[in-house]
Write a structure and sequence with these properties.
Elements (H helix, E strand, L loop, with lengths): L1 H8 L4 H13 L1 H57 L2 H9 L4 H34 L11 H20 L2
Helix pairs in contact: 1-2, 1-3, 2-3, 3-6, 5-6
């Protein structure tokens, strides 16, 4: 058992002292089994102490993904509804001589401006609320630029897709 060997070769450790004491009283085989048992008990204790934290992190990740999905669907729905309301205006512009490319750029430009404004407001809000979330994050910086950039890019892509598809 490599773990018991590691315990037996350490010098100033609780488990190595326990191993030496048991080896002198009951023999090396029993001391090895007792050392392995103690290591398993410690591993179990550590695992169960992190189980609640792991579940909370998993639950927070699931709700974050749900919030992102709802945000993307909401942005797409609102912008596509706004564009659908402008069908008569688009028809008038076409009748007055505007090309399809000009209308597409007009609608994409307006959707991009709305998307950028929403992303800037969202980034400002998220940066101001990171101090409250810092205690709930593990091994992730609260102001991670990759996460902020990827979410902002996803929202902008949803806004542009809403403007381009209908």
């Amino acid at each position: 058992m490599p773990s018991s060997w590691a315990v037996s070769t350490k010098k100033n450790d609780y488990l190595s002292a326990l191993y030496r004491r048991l080896a002198s009283r009951r023999g090396v085989k029993r001391a090895t089994l007792a050392g392995a048992h103690n290591l398993l008990v410690i591993a179990y204790s550590v695992t169960t102490s992190f189980a609640d934290t792991h579940f909370e992190a998993l639950l927070m990740a699931a709700f974050a993904e749900l919030a992102l999905a709802l945000t993307l669907v909401g942005v797409y729905g609102v912008l596509s509804f706004q564009i659908a309301q402008r069908i008569q205006e688009i028809g008038i512009r076409l009748a007055l001589g505007a090309t399809h490319c000009e209308i597409r750029f007009l609608i994409l430009g307006e959707a991009a401006r709305a998307g950028v404004a929403g992303v800037l407001i969202g980034l400002f809000s998220a940066f101001s609320l990171t101090r409250f979330m810092a205690s709930l994050l593990y091994n992730v910086h609260p102001k991670d630029p990759v996460i902020f950039a990827s979410v902002a890019l996803l929202v902008l892509v949803a806004a542009l897709a809403a403007a381009y598809i209908p």
